[in-house]
């Protein structure tokens, strides 16, 4: 029987990789669970609740000394040094960008599984932390925008006068964009959304948005569920759409990402300058280079014409209890796959595409990058 360590995150991260509920399931899978003291403090999961769920609450070095360590963010060099010889770490590791993390884990002879490398196949959806966190982030982007916006989202007719609804434009209707459309329309706003993948049109309308197509003679095709870079013709037509929308709408939330590339620039400084004073932009792609000219990662900027641009990159962490619950559930679903005997023994099967795709280092051997996964 192996022991799983749930370790505390560094300052600035409010999430934790397990909750009392997910700890119970890990124990049902045959594991012992040790939680670092205070690991759930920022997400409203006190040590006592972990203890009641059957975990032991231990010191930092003890939690890190477990055979399997579960974590949200990549380990720092100091944390890598705390891992036991031959341990397995499961966390978001940004393997494509963080060669330093991969190499440090390799040097230590560790096995490292990257939660952010789960392939986009239906079977893996229940383990996909990028999707679960994007969903939360899209919702929270609307909450942040509503907080900054000095008006109602919903229209009202009151004795003191008529209030028009806010108009919201969502750029990119993937997981985060759809969550933002749902949240903004349920607050009563008029919501419009655009995305180069025409198949999202029905999804947008089904949750109360209006789909704005960018009309060009091409269809965006994707074989793996990810968007590809758009053409010059598409970008020119999209730029005209954004310029027209920027003059009309009150809120813009951008979510456009292209895996392996910097985020596409969608909203120019001229578009921002054309917006009404009091308008709000949330650039959810700020950390990937930004969809909006002038957005700054982690910052709230107010432009000379009174437009607030939010570049927050911690939107999921701003709903820490729920984010931890969904993250922890994704991890439990992965551990069910990795524990076929339900006997507290982790078995890594490289014939399984999910397990192969997420394994970055196996017993100190680099296994990154994995073979490409084709989605039918
Ligand atoms: P993402 O985070 O990679 O990108 C966000 C959105 O940006 C996408 O909708 C993309 O089309 C859009 N985009 C790219 N370039 C753009 C541009 N120039 N202008 C405007 N928008 C642009 O994508 P995501 O949200 O993670 O998911 C995209 C799709 O993949 C969704 O339909 C989702 O359901 C699917 N998905 C499936 C699985 C699975 O089956 N396991 C997992 C994750 C996502």
TrEMBL record:
One of its GO terms (cellular component) is plasma membrane. It is a multi-pass membrane protein. Residues 146-311 form the Alanine dehydrogenase/pyridine nucleotide transhydrogenase NAD(H)-binding domain. Its EC number is 7.1.1.1. It comes from Microbacterium caowuchunii. Keywords: Cell inner membrane, Cell membrane, Membrane, NAD, NADP, Nucleotide-binding, Oxidoreductase, Translocase, Transmembrane, Transmembrane helix. This is NAD(P) transhydrogenase subunit alpha. The keyword NAD applies. It is found in: Cell inner membrane. The chain holds residues 1 to 376 of 513 of the full protein. It comes from the Bacteria. Residues 5-137 form the Alanine dehydrogenase/pyridine nucleotide transhydrogenase N-terminal domain. GO terms for biological process: NADPH regeneration. It catalyses: NAD(+) + NADPH + H(+)(in) = NADH + NADP(+) + H(+)(out). Its main location: membrane. One of its GO terms (molecular function) is proton-translocating NAD(P)+ transhydrogenase activity. The transhydrogenation between NADH and NADP is coupled to respiration and ATP hydrolysis and functions as a proton pump across the membrane. Signal peptide: none annotated.
